[in-house]
Amino acid sequence: MNHLQLLLPGSLFWQPEFPMCVTREREFFSLAMHVHDFIEINYVAEGKGFHYIGEERLQVQRGDLFIIPIGTAHVYRPVSPHAAHELIVYNCLFSTELLHKLLKAHALPAELEQMLTEGNGEYRYFKDSQHEFRPLMEQLFKEHSLRLSGYEPVLCGLLLQLLIGLYRCEKQVHRPGASFHQLQNVFEYMAKHYAEPISLEHLAGMIPISVSYLQRLFKRTTGQSITEYLQNLRIEKSCELLQRSPLSVRDIASQIGYKDLKFFHALFKKKTGFSPYQYRKKANL
Description:
The chain is α+β, with helices and mostly antiparallel strands. It has helices spanning 96-106, 110-117, 133-146, 151-173, 178-182, 184-193, 200-205, 211-222, 226-244, 249-255, 261-272, 276-283, and strands spanning 6-8, 20-26, 34-36, 39-46, 48-53, 56-61, 64-68, 74-78, 88-94, 124-127. It has three domains: 6-173, Jelly Rolls (Sandwich); 178-223; 227-283, Arc Repressor Mutant, subunit A (Orthogonal Bundle).
């Protein structure tokens, strides 16, 4: 993947008097990884493909929705150049100036601004599971394309609906108990595949959210990082094997996912206060 990052300014897409643009694009391999000086909301309308964001590669399909803040490098790619593998994406682009006008005029929550302007490569990833966002994106594109009299306030009204809808999706994640529910598939996968190499990208794609957001959500929900949680899970399984099986310590370490016996010894001692041999002897008294 070519990580050359082009800068796409908003001036390429709109006139200064109304800094907003809505497009419907068939994605190709010609556009390089890029950043922009505007906020972008993407909606995958047709097909399947990949969305490269920073160092991440996410598989995308119809109904996937992204918020791409200023400075976040990304690009879409279809599965292949073949016409049968087309990837169609709606893009809603707007400036921070327009956002601030809408925030001020309608007293929108401060968290909404943070969600849209968060930097450091952050982004938001949603699924249009209730099919509420596609009609909005289609109407935004239609209004922008036709540009009938009064289209600017109509576009602003539709953009407000879109932003509030995304904000509500974001708030759903933070309801009491919602985090555990959202991570349920991740917990189940880790419990089943704890002895295997586990990719953060794969875990994030199960929800789906970004890797960075998964890490924050997991830490907030469990009080542990994903690495800590996986280590604790593996050590717990090793304790069970030390108590109940005749396997050697080396075999147990390998069975729970550690090929480095020295590392396993150090981690086990750190987590339990005993060496594996001491723990087995103590457990069998």
